[in-house]
Each structure stands twice: as C-alpha cells, then as structure tokens.
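Could you help me review a protein record that somebody else here produced? Do not assume that whoever made the record got everything right. The record follows directly below this note.
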Amino acid sequence: MSDFEDKHLDFVLKHYQDGKFDTQKAIQRFNEAHGIVRKPRRRVLPWVSGMVAAAAAVVLCVFLFRGNGQEIQLIAGSEIQEFVLPDGSEVTLAPGSRLIYRKKSPRSTQLDGKAYFEVARDEAVPFEITSDGTFVRVLGTKFMVDAASSVKEVYVTEGKVLFARNKNAEGVILTKDMQATLSPDENIPVIAVEPDVNSIAWQRGSFIFDKTPLKEVLEALSEHYRVSFAATDLDKQLSGEFYAEDLDLIISLIESALDVHIVKR
C-alpha cells in the first residue's frame, strides 16, 4: 500500500465508531482536503446534431435505417455509459449492454443486458422496455432492469413500475425500494421479501451495508467484481457506504475496521 493509501486509510478509520463505518463522509472529507475530484461519467445525447455528437456516435451509438424508420442503438463497451434520450429520459448502460429504439418512438425501447433508467414523466405516452422474456411499463420513474441472465430483475428507486413477462401477461406493480425477479419457469414476477439495495451498486457507484454479516458483504463484492473471497469471522457485522471504485481499498478498510483477514481468490 502506498503512502497516500496509508493516509487515506488512517483518515477514514478515525470515523469508525460503535460498529458503524461512515466511509462516505470520511472519504469525501479526505478527498476535499487533498483536492481529489471524482470523475463524472460522460453523458451522450445521440439525438443532438453536430460534429461532437457525431464523433461520439461512432463509438457509442449505431444508427441503422430500416423500412419503417431510423433505428438507434446505444451501446456500452467495456465501461458504464450514460445517455440522454430524445424525451429527456436518462439511461445508464452496464458494460456490454445495448438499448434500441426507433427515432419516431423513443419511449418504446428494447434492452439487451442491464440498465438503470430515469424516465421523464409523460402521462400520455408510457415508457416501455422489452427484452427476452421481460416487459416493463412506466410513466416516469427511476429503476433498474437486469435482463442479462435467464433470471430477470427489476429494482425500483422511485415511482411506480409494471413488471411482466410480456405486454399481455399478468404482472406486478413495484414502487420505491421494491424488487422482483422473473425466472424462465415462472409466469408472474416474484416480489422480493428483502430487496437487495446493492443490486444497483454498479450504477450508484457505492455499496451500502447496515449491520450486514461479513459473509453477505463479501458475497455482494464477489458478485460485483467477479472475485471470490475467503475470510475469518464471517459473522461480524458491517455498516456504512463504500465507494465501488477501488476493491483493494474496500478490503483494507473492512479488515482494519472489523479486525479480520480477507483473501482474494
């Protein structure tokens, strides 16, 4: 660990008290004191004309002409990408994901992968998302759709969302902080009894834990970073919010705060 990381760790640990780890405030104060600014993600407006937008489109957007109009494909490569749609809605695509819509109907979309939506409200024209075995309809709200695997998932952070297998199937209504999944052998999505707030950690940029056993903490990190862990004292509990940008720093913070040893495998 570098001298800078040592100072970072020492500073953050001063804010650890009574089993609660408020890393968000501690790291923010450290960054402010050292003039560190978190780099914001670049947002792309594929519908804006001009050379800048056109240059961005070469990498991030694909324009196709079909018999019934212009089709726009928004694509995230190896990094998270943010886009603003023609109606003002914002979409954050997870790496390897793609969103498709036609120029004449931008509120009717097709998703391949995982995305977080902040939909501009329009009572007259619902916003719809279809994917392989998933249908979502909203008027204006914030939510995530994960259609990257066989088990589809929707997590709502604001507003109201209809989640069903297709446009004509029976579905469920989800509101703020609700989550549901839909397996291939199910006709109706199943609402989660205990929603996983870290299912949107990739979009939020941080993990949130509240008296969470270390075993569950490591499971969340493992799923996000695609790394397995072994650790001592898995029953110890952790509370706080951790930036998702640096896995090694997160592990160092947890080890020091809980007095445990964690090994990446």
Observations:
- The radius of gyration is 21 Å.
- The helical segments are 3-13, 23-33, 51-60, 201-204, 214-225, 247-258.
- Confidence is low (pLDDT under 50) at residues 13-21, 34-39, 46-59.
